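ok so i was messing around last nite and threw this chain in just to see what happens. nothing serious, just curious
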Amino acid sequence: MEQIAIISDIHGNIPALTAVLDDIQQRGISRVFCLGDIVGKGPNSDLALDIIKKNCEISVMGNWDDLMNQDVDFEMARWCRGLIGQERLAYLSTLPFSIEFMMSGKFVRLFHASPRSLYERVQPWDDYEKRLSLFGYSDLCQEKRQADIVGYGDIHNAFIQHLEGKTLFNVGSVGNPLDLTQASYVIMEGEYMGVSAAPLNMQFVRVPYDIELAVQQAVEADMPAAEPYIRELRTAQYRGSVRG
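result:
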């Protein structure tokens, strides 16, 4: 069986990203997928992009990654865009919408937020039908078929649920977790590209990292909205709601 590490929502937090990649390497996992939002919110989007490009086999586009190539009047987006530079912006524009593959006889689809949009937010406590709809597809997806297993990022809140024989999971966030003050990622283990039924395991991993170093880097960068970002790192509470 093969292991795949799935990470998401780095948001320019290098201490967290480094800690997670070190943990992945120590486990001997060589295949790493990223579910987007490499940039934004944090201070080092440029470095995060370089590290992800080097270490991840595939990265999909997140909403913040998409914003970098949009004409938006948003201070943090403008600040990040200037930090990233044209070469990295060009790389962001090439990121695919989803990652789709067979594993141990199950069709797996991974994306940032939903199979329909980079900007549709679905929480674990949302309406049942809304959560169930994540197994569907749109013209943005590679294959026009229902998924057996769906993994996503965006909400910074790791969970797993079983809905009508299907498995829905969120990998949480590496750089801006909003459930626990530790970086989060998921390991899938099974027969990669295998079309026959076989064992398939999923492990949620929490990795402690130097939060105060991440805070120091945000302060030194003199970035916009540093105060709410720092508060989120220290408390794991979303700036817009105490419920993530």
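not much to say yet. The mean pLDDT is 96.
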